Amino acid sequence: MAHEHDHEHDQHHHRHHDHGDIDWAGMAPLLESQAELYAPLYERALAWLARQQTDPGLVVDAGSGPGVVSCLLAETFPGARVVAVDGAEPLLERARARAERLGVADRFGTLAGELPGVLGDLDYPADLLWAGRSVHHLGDQRAALAAFAGRLAPGGTLAVLEGGLPARFLPRDLGFGRPGLQARLDALHEEWFAQMRAGLPGSVAETEDWPALLAAAGLGHPHSRSFLLDLPAPATGRARAHVAATLSRLRDSFGDHLDAGDRATLDRLLDPDDEGSVHRRPDVFVLAAHTVHTATKSL
Ligand SMILES: C[S@@+](CC[C@H](N)C(=O)[O-])C[C@H]1O[C@@H](n2cnc3c(N)ncnc32)[C@H](O)[C@@H]1O
Fold it and tell me: Pairing mode, if any, of strands 286-296 and 152-168?
C-alpha cells in the first residue's frame, strides 16, 4: 500500500517478496493492532469526512481487513448500515466479532470476494465508500476507482486513503550504527512495493495522481487532506510493541539487503536485553501521516 509513491507503509507485507502474494489472513493480528494504534488518526479523518457526507445510509469499507476502521465508521455514522468488504474471509470474521463487541452488529454486515467486482453484490448503492490502503493492492487502480464510483449513489462520496509519509520511530542518529537507518529501510520498502504492484494480476502502471484518477472516474469536488499520527516519546507499551513488530518484519524481509552494519544495528534495536533497544530506550516515538482523497458523484 503506499506509493508509487505513496509512502504508506504497509510494513506488514514485507515478508512476502513473491510479488503481491500476501497472506492477508495471517496478518490479521498485525493489521488489527496497527489500525488500533492509528485509531486517533482515523477518528480525525472520519470526523472530516462526516462534514462532507453528513448522513449516509450505506457506508462501504472496501478492503476492510479486520474491521477496525469499519467499526469506527459505524460509530461516526450512527444512522448508517456499514458493510465491510474484503477478499479474506478470516479477516471479515474478525470484523464481525469486533462489531458484536462494540454493540453495532445490528447494522453491520460483511461481503467476501475480489475487489472491485464483488461490489456488484451490494444490495444498493453506497453513500460513502471508504478504501483504506486497499486500492494499491489492485492491479488496475484506475479501473478499480471507476468501478467503486459506479457503486456510489447520486451525491455519494468516495474516500481513498493512499499516500502520505513514511512512519518514523527513532531519531536519525540512534547513538550507534550509521545514522539514517529508517530512510534506508524506506528505500528497500519502495523496491518491494514496486515489485509487489508489478506482480499483481492485471497490473497496470499508473500515475498515482489520486485526485486526477477520481476525476477520471467521473467524480467531482475533490479534496485531499493529510492526517498525522503523533505519539511522542515516551512511548506507551502498545506503541513500543508496534515499533518492535514493524522493525522485526523489516529485519526478516530486508535483512539480506542491508549491509552488515545496519543488520547489527537492527539486531541491537530488537534485543530486549539491550538498553539501546526499542523495548527500553526512552526516545521511541511514532510519527506518521496518511492522506485521504475524496470526491463526490453528482446528484
Ligand atoms: C493493507 S490492508 C488494509 C486494511 C484496512 N483497510 C486498514 O487500513 O487497516 C489491505 C486489505 O485489502 C484486502 N485486499 C487486497 N487485495 C484485495 C482484492 N483483490 N480483493 C479484495 N480484498 C483485497 C486485503 O485482504 C487486506 O485486508
Answer: antiparallel
Pocket test for ligand 1, best of 1, 85, 86, 292 (most atoms within 8 A of CB): 86
Alpha carbon dihedral 148, 90, 26, 143, in 10-degree steps, equals -10
Mean pLDDT along residues 40-48? 98
Gap from CA of 74 to ligand 1 centroid (Å): 19
Instruction: Residue 256: count other Cβ atoms within 10 Å of its Cβ.
Output: 8
Is the minimum distance from the CB of 137 to ligand 1 under 6 angstroms? yes
Does 14 score more than 70 pLDDT?
no
Q: How many CB atoms lie within 10 A of CB 224?
A: 15
Please, are residues 189 and 11 in contact by the beta-carbon 8 Å criterion? Answer: yes
The 10 Å CB-count burial string (b at 16+, else e) for 113-137 is eebbebbeebeebbbbbbbbbbbbb
In this predicted structure, the answer to whether residue 20 has a pLDDT above a threshold of 60 is: no
Q: What are 66-118's pLDDT values in tens digits? A: 999 999 999 999 999 999 999 999 999 999 999 999 999 999 999 999 999 99
Identify the CATH assignment for 25-200+208-297 out of 3.90.1150.10, 3.40.50.150, 3.90.550.10, 3.10.300.10: 3.40.50.150
Share of the chain above pLDDT 70, in %: 93
Q: How far apart are the first and last CA of the chain?
A: 31
Task: Please work out, in degrees rounded to the nearest 5, the angle formed at the alpha carbon of residue 227 by the alpha carbons of 190 and 199.
Answer: 25
